[in-house]
Design goal:
The complex is a heterodimer. By secondary structure, chain A is of the alpha/beta class. Chain A has 22 helices and 35 strands. Chain B folds into 2 domains: 149 residues, translation initiation factor eif-2b, domain 1 (Four Helix Bundle (Hemerythrin (Met), subunit A)); 169 residues, 3-Layer(aba) Sandwich (Rossmann fold), CATH 3.40.50. Classes of the chains: A alpha/beta, B alpha/beta. At the A-B interface, loops of A face loops of B.
Chain lengths: 732, 381
């Protein structure tokens, strides 16, 4: 642990001797995983077992001997600042100082670090941590290792803290709902060589650069490590962020960027913690897990009944992990089960059962209520006969009689739920409407203050849709015929995020249902047994043929590709209206670079646009369509050829074509082989590509083979043709 | 055998198959127990594999398993041994000019002495060996060799099935009646019968909680804990130093046993006596689950006379705390002795009930089992 000094080192202190240990705390996650709650309150101030998350982080930073903390606030910066001003962190005299840095334009961790660099407050090595981290580890060893490495090798810019996570059925619940992380570490030096945080579970495949194996004597690949998101950085990290102004995400851009691009020889090292605790609240699932870890005292001394800075109340710990604040009023017949926290001045009614839950301050819980595995924040009123399981309920919520919350429900601030409503599983309810358009890339948990005002017109429509939602879930709501959410203002039901149910159940507060877990496991096992995994793998959706980049495939890439395709089409449309062909090529090329796509993707997208164009002209029968298509192909063949330099790209075009025929526009289906022949004749497609396509499809399902069958004759002819060609050549 | 008797130890050493080196710093009180250094025997035995012609490979395997500690627990060890003997009998053929009864008995004797060298016998194994020998002796002389062998093999199968497998099922059946909703059950170490009881009670839908008490150095409770948690039971895990804290919550204590002696003393994994004693002082019933074939007519009043010494080295290491190495090279310090006892004896006062396949009996009634089911009946059905 860094030794503390009683007075601040002034400028004339020799720097080598004593540099105060500094920390940068990002009080903004730059993500939307906690929406809708974070529309009204910043994530770092959300209570985690009745204390704001930032308190855990600050308390830990103090305990490891950090002297100065710079809290970077962005979204809801006023709230964070006023909280810190009123808290003991800034009031207490002594060595531990907390200062805030505010910026409203930062939209990512990268921006935040650039702002901090501008301020010029960081003077040496610092700890980079986000304000939602809970830990009790000792940093002394990691800091020492980091400093030693820096002495030997100034390029060792960062030390990442990782910890072991056990790979078993049970810990699927506790992997915090994160993406699976795969990292390669040099077992000797602990240098991080490869980092991938979006490994697709279903594929069970990662691609490593073969140079990794050439350059390093030994590599250990880990899928059993958790990233704690605590980094020890040197000053150079800030410079790197300034130099590479496109770095946004700490892991996705910065770490991967350093590893892949080898910028100035910078290296990242890892430090594995053994028995201590470190975890970050990233999503609802990790919120649930970490809360339980705190209640079960894995994070000691940061547990509810120990007075560390930040919580002043004397909370009593009873047997079986039941925590009670002083002024709890509890009925004699109420049954409080293991691992429950009851906040100050909370009232619990007769025959109420509470287990595995955290109840905040000043809550009123009625009679015959059942609460299990839930998180109830402050000043919540729960009337008689409610049933809550694995739900999260924010401040000031009012649940009227007989409300049933199914697993995974999130209810945001001050919502009122009417009598006997059943809120279906995984719903999110808020007084604020869901933003209709979401920035797909980098988001802020930042809401304009005026979105709070609800317009009556929009409200009506939302109410309708919400009713529909309920009708699907239960019949109860319809029978009651009352508006679902009454009182201070009707609420909005947020539709699920793009991830779909899979993502939802992985990241929700509720435990993963046993059936689902089994499914996940089985898919893994069957994947392991899959006979041979070629380097080219078609994802289940059959949307695109992944190239080497997208084999790490996931929803993001798919979406990016669709976006890219649209852009190419728009460009192509401009080409129709008279823009020069060269310019079209130039534009598509720049698009390719900006979207990080391959040549093959361009070819596919362009071909798609051409085929679409063919559909624009009216046609009544397939012959006309054929004629149209041929016309278009002749017209744009040159442009297309520009992108078809290798068989791979041609291959991509065929697949795309197949896709078009089977998916979007079935009109082309009967013409498949004709057009294919035509493309061959026009020398747009080489026979090699067609043959390899045919070969590829031989092993496929029957349903996949429709088009190969259609083109069978043509392929057969092609197979025989080469010999003739050879003869021709020989003759010549 | 008294191991503090120098001349007898010398004699035994000459006969021994396994080369044993004695521990240097012996504990005075336990000098009479076999105290061999653990560790060097295994490579020695491995190298001697082809020279020990008279020991059947299956028995040899069992011996190695005892040595490495890969098979522990009374039932498992007994089963392994019987299966080893079964293989040996299958491959046995009477040498010319010898009788099967005599020759096979001496063969079994040599196997047993080999096994004892690997690890001292448990009471259950002793009973099983006695049973097998008496069956051999009682073979009708007019039987052919193959008939005799098949008789013995079916006897061994019967023994395993009736005395261990079915007995366990009956014990589980009995013990489950004592588990009610809302109970908190405490167990120590890892007993297979107790594990079966807990899992089955959970499957029957009884609502209860389990406290697993564990003790160093073996930490067998972890295995039990893992199995229980896998089955979805609510568990609390703690070490034996917290026993008096946790005992407040407990309603029943379930323990396994290595042997039950005729004065009602329960001979079990070290720590069980402590658990039983604390439970007794908290007025919490202690139920011992033990198959009747582990009963023994002997009387034991302390855990000194008959016990087993484990490897003293293992208690000098603390699991996952490598920095706590103050006991390294302890054997070079003359005035330091480490004692790693494997068993202890629980006096019958601290035992409320013994659950056997013959029913639930108080510890004072152990002699009744001997009388009613007699030694003959007990062993020769």
């Amino acid at each position: 642990m860094a030794q503390k000094k009683t007075h601040r080192p002034s400028a004339d202190d020799p720097e080598v001797e004593r540099i105060p240990l500094q920390a940068v705390l990002l009080a903004d996650s730059f993500a939307q995983k906690f929406r809708p709650i974070t529309l009204e309150r910043p994530k770092v101030l959300l209570p985690l077992v009745n204390a704001p998350m930032i308190d855990y982080t600050l308390a830990w930073l103090e305990s490891v001997g950090v002297d100065e903390v710079f809290v970077f606030c962005c979204a809801h910066s006023q709230q964070v600042k006023s909280y810190l001003e009123n808290s003991q962190w800034t009031k207490q005299p002594g060595v531990f100082s907390v200062a805030t840095i505010e910026s409203h334009d930062a939209i990512s961790a990268g921006d935040a670090l650039r702002v901090i660099h501008e301020h010029g407050v960081i003077r040496g090595d610092f700890i980079l941590i986000s304000g939602d981290t809970v830990s009790n580890m000792s940093l002394a060893k990691a800091l020492y290792e980091h400093k030693e490495r820096r002495k030997k090798d100034p390029h060792a810019v960062m030390t990442m803290i990782i910890k072991q996570s056990k790979p078993s059925v049970l810990t699927h619940q506790t992997r915090l709902g994160d993406d699976e992380i795969v990292m390669a570490i040099d077992p000797e030096t602990k240098e991080l060589l490869y980092y991938e945080d979006k490994v697709d579970l279903s594929q069970r495949l990662i691609l490593l650069d073969k140079m990794l194996l050439v350059e390093n004597g030994a590599i250990s690949l880990h899928n059993d490590k958790q990233d704690c998101y605590v980094d020890i950085c040197s000053l150079g990290v800030l410079d790197l962020f300034v130099d590479n102004f496109d770095y946004q995400h700490l892991r996705r851009h910065f770490v991967k960027g350093l590893l892949v691009d080898d910028i100035m020889g910078c290296k990242i090292f890892t430090h594995e913690i053994q028995s201590s605790y470190a975890a970050r609240v990233d999503n609802f699932k990790s919120y649930d897990t970490i809360s339980k870890d705190i209640v079960q005292r894995w994070t000691y001394p940061f547990v509810p009944d120990v007075r560390y800075l930040g919580n002043g109340l004397q909370i009593k710990l009873d047997r079986e992990g039941i925590y009670k604040a002083p002024d709890v009023v509890q009925s004699r017949s109420a049954h409080i089960d293991a691992f429950t926290v009851l906040g100050n001045a909370t009232t619990v009614g007769d025959n109420t059962k509470i287990s595995n839950s955290v109840i905040g301050q000043g809550c009123i819980i009625g009679h015959n209520v059942v609460i299990e595995g839930s998180f109830v924040w402050d000043n919540v009123t729960i009337e008689d006969g409610c049933k809550l399981s694995h739900a999260l309920i924010c401040d000031g919520v009012h649940l009227r009689e007989g409300v049933i919350l199914e697993p995974g429900v999130i209810i945001s601030f001050k919502v009122e739920v009417g009598q006997n409503i059943v809120v279906p599983t995984y719903s999110k309810v808020s007084l604020l409407p869901q933003p209709s358009k979401q920035d797909s890339d980098e988001e802020l948990e930042y809401a304009d203050s005026n979105t709070g005002a609800i317009e009556s017109t929009s409200m009506a429509t939302v109410m309708n849709t919400s009713k529909l939602d309920f009708a699907l879930g239960t019949s109860d709501a319809n029978i009651s015929g009352k508006p679902e959410f009454q009182g201070s203002g009707p609420g909005y039901i947020w539709s699920s995020s793009e991830g779909g149910t899979e993502e939802e159940c992985r990241q929700s507060i509720a435990p993963i249902p046993a059936g689902k877990l089994l499914e996940l496991l089985q898919s893994k096992i069957s994947d392991n047994n899959a006979p041979d995994q070629d380097m080219i793998i078609t994802p289940a959706s059959g949307e695109l043929l992944p190239d080497s980049e997208s084999t790490f495939g996931d929803g993001d890439d798919d979406r990016e590709y669709v976006d890219f395709e649209k852009e190419v089409e728009a460009t192509f449309q401009r080409g129709l209206t008279g823009v020069e062909k060269e310019n079209v090529i130039l534009e598509i090329n720049s698009l390719r670079l900006s979207c990080n796509m391959e040549q093959a993707d361009c070819a596919g997208a362009l071909f798609h646009s051409i085929m679409k164009q063919a559909l624009v002209a009216p046609y009544s029968c397939k012959n006309e369509l054929y004629a149209n298509t041929i016309k278009e192909i002749i017209k744009w063949g040159d442009l297309l050829k520009h992108y078809l330099t290798t068989t791979d790209e041609e291959f991509e075009v065929i697949l795309k074509f197949e896709d078009i025929c089977s998916g979007t526009t079935r009109d082309f289906a009967p013409l498949f082989s004709n057009i294919l022949t035509f493309l061959y004749d026009k020398e747009i497609l080489s026979e090699k590509a067609i043959l390899s396509w045919a070969q590829e499809k031989e092993g496929a399902d029957e349903s996949d083979k429709i088009f190969t069958k259609q083109a069978e004759q043509f392929i057969k002819w092609l197979r025989e043709a080469p010999e003739e060609d050879d003869e021709d050549d020989a003759d010549a | 055998m008294q191991f503090d008797d120098r001349t007898r130890v010398e004699k035994a050493k000459k006969r021994a198959v396994v080369s044993q080196r004695e521990v240097r710093n012996r504990v005075e009180l336990f000098r009479h127990l076999p105290q061999y250094e653990h560790g060097p025997q295994l490579p020695y035995l491995e190298s001697k594999f082809f020279h020990l012609g008279h020991i059947h490979p299956s028995v040899y395997k069992v011996g190695l398993q005892y040595l490495t500690g890969s098979s522990t627990g009374g039932n498992a060890r007994c089963k392994e041994m019987l299966l080893g003997f079964r293989d040996a009998i299958l491959d046995y053929s009477t040498p010319p000019e010898k009788t099967l009864v005599r020759d096979l008995t001496s063969k079994i004797n040599s196997f047993v002495s080999f096994l004892i060298e690997c690890r001292p016998l448990s009471v259950s194994m002793g009973n099983a060996i006695r049973f097998l020998k008496s069956r051999i002796v009682k073979l009708q002389p007019n039987l052919s060799e193959s008939e005799a062998k098949s008789n013995l093999i079916s006897d061994i199968d019967h023994f395993i099935n009736e005395k261990i497998v079915i007995a366990d099922q009956v014990i589980v059946h009995h013990a489950i009646t004592k588990i009610r909703n809302g109970d908190v059950l405490l167990t120590h170490g890892h007993s297979t019968v107790v594990e079966m009881i807990l899992v089955q009670a959970h499957e029957l839908g009884k609502q209860f909680r389990v406290v697993v008490i564990d003790s160093r150095p073996k930490l067998e409770g972890k295995t039990l804990l893992r199995k229980l948690v896998m089955n979805g039971l609510k568990c609390t895990y703690t070490h034996i130093n917290a026993i008096s804290y946790i005992m407040h919550e407990v309603t029943h204590v379930f323990l396994g046993a290595s042997a039950v002696l005729s004065n009602g003393t329960v001979y079990s994994r070290v720590g069980a006596a402590c658990v039983a004693m604390v439970a007794h002082s908290f007025r919490i019933p202690v139920l011992i689950c033990c198959e009747a074939y582990k009963f023994h007519e002997r009387v034991l009043i302390d855990s000194i006379c008959s016990n087993e010494l484990g490897d003293p080295d293992v208690i000098s290491h603390v699991h996952e705390r490598e920095e706590l190495n103050h006991l390294q090279n302890w054997s070079h310090k003359e005035n330091l002795q480490l004692l790693n006892l494997v068993y202890d004896a629980t006096p019958s006062d601290f035992v409320s009930m013994i659950v056997t396949e013959h029913g639930m009996i108080p510890p004072t009634s152990v002699p009744v089992i001997f009388r009613e089911y007699g030694r003959d009946q007990l062993l020769f059905f």
